[in-house]
Amino acid sequence: MIAQGQKIPAASLTQLGEQGLNHFTTDELFANKKVVLFAVPGAFTPTCSAAHLPGFVVLREEFAAKGVDEVMCVSVNDAFVMKAWGESQNAERIRMLADGDASFTKALGLDKDTGDFGGVRSTRYAMVVDNGVVTQLFVEEDKQFEVSKAEHVLANL
Description:
- The protein is an alpha/beta fold.
- It has 6 helices and 9 strands.
- The strands form 3 sheets. The protein has a 5-stranded mixed sheet.
- Helix 4 (about 80-90) links the parallel strand 4 (about 70-75) and strand 5.
- It is globular.
- Belongs to the peroxiredoxin family. Prx5 subfamily.
């Protein structure tokens, strides 16, 4: 599993924009800025939709006030699902990224097999990434939602 002080691994993530699918390398996403990245096991799932994403939506301006350039959400879903979920959650200030084949999640060592729930998914986590290096990492225990909450991450900045 990735640890504090390590560089984000090279990978590609996808976002659906106005002109179609956009593919971004992790270098493009994390270079020369401070980013809060959080991951959910699945878009439109109960905890993710009721609490995880909404917390970051509500506190987005407070993250900016603490020097965070961008807040990103990633899930092992496709870009179409991530866009629809973001729109349904009024998350226009959160970059909704798809890790469709779980390659980024696996490279981080934060993947888990959920069986018939959805197969390979992401562990729930949040991290602070400064110029491509993880400076803080908050990984949830299975079936927990405490340390990756927006409020907890914000309090630790």
